[in-house]
């Protein structure tokens, strides 16, 4: 243990329901005691490359890059293993296993994919995001044990501002305005944070059997609902549209359709991709959405599709998932 050990983030939230109390810790962090491990000549800084997690048999789970427009070409793989990865402005987030047990951690990495800091996570990684400046990281994990949920999986989402050291341990602590009125409920659940800037974000809020797109403010610790039936949002580089998963006919049991929402008009455009897609869709550019499609339990490929509903899906990067366009 280094003498400079410091606790940056610890959340202990008690939820009282029917006279009982359920306590859980979301994330507790300290600067990693392990030395930084150099990646194998991989540049994750701004540039014409796509960052991804490899699902190929050789190098499974390792983070790599491919040149823009050359998704099927030569890839550069690092020594960094992640379950989820994302990067922006020369800083990355890696959600990865932490030791031999079923535990995980959030690793902060630099433009060379060297680990700079680590935070233990409680829950199974689902999604990772970085604000456009590279200053704020967001995570979503799956957890169990919520008394209102009958032992089924719930999600937890939080943020870490690396510039100010401010944290949002769980978005469930934020105040909510639903349909213009203050709202409180024990079953409020969040996932899928996507950033407008270091302060403002969008995410999915679930409560009372409905799923909403919310606009959030990290400074005031508040959110407000914008639209129903929006899951796993991803903000476009020009900040005008949200790519998301829309439950077919409002019922997740029927599957989801990749869709784009215009934030000015609230008009929805279903995209040409009709298969089930991964929760971490991202924008390739202002005209194209990219996303992973699973192949069995371990395989996946990154595909792309026009954001205006035209065209057809195109294989972008084989044997890959968790894409991030490093030029955005």
From TrEMBL:
It holds the Pfam family PD40. It comes from the Bacteria. InterPro entries: 6-blade_b-propeller_TolB-like, WD40. This is WD40-like Beta Propeller Repeat. It comes from Actinoplanes regularis.
């Amino acid at each position: 243990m280094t003498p400079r050990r410091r606790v940056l983030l610890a959340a202990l939230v008690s939820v009282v329901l029917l006279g009982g109390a359920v306590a859980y810790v979301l994330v507790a962090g300290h600067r990693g005691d392990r030395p930084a491990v150099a990646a194998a000549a991989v540049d994750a800084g701004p540039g014409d490359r796509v960052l991804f997690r490899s699902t190929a048999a050789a190098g499974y789970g390792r983070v790599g890059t491919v040149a823009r427009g050359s998704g099927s070409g030569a890839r550069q793989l690092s020594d960094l293993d992640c379950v989820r990865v994302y990067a922006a402005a020369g800083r990355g987030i890696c959600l990865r296993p932490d030791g031999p047990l079923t535990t995980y951690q959030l690793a902060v990495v630099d433009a060379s994919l060297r680990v700079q800091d680590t935070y233990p996570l409680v829950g199974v990684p689902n999604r990772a995001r970085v604000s456009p400046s590279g200053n704020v990281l967001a995570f979503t994990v799956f957890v169990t044990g919520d008394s209102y949920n009958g032992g089924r999986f719930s999600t937890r989402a939080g943020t870490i501002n690396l510039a100010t050291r401010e944290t949002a341990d769980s978005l469930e602590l934020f105040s909510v305005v639903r349909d213009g009125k203050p709202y409180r409920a024990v079953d409020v659940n969040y996932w899928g944070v996507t950033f407008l800037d270091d302060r403002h974000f969008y995410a999915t809020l679930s409560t009372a059997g409905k799923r909403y797109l919310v606009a959030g403010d990290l400074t005031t610790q508040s959110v407000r609902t914008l639209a129903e039936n929006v899951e796993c949002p991803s903000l476009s580089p020009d900040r005008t549209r949200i790519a998301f998963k829309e439950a077919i006919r409002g019922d997740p049991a029927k599957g989801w359709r990749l869709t784009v929402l215009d934030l000015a008009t609230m008009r929805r455009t279903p995209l040409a991709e009709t298969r089930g897609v991964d929760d971490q869709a991202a924008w390739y550019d202002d005209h194209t959405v990219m996303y992973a499609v699973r192949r069995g339990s371990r395989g996946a490929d990154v595909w792309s599709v026009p954001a205006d509903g035209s065209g057809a899906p195109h294989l972008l990067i084989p044997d890959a998932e968790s894409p991030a366009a490093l030029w955005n």
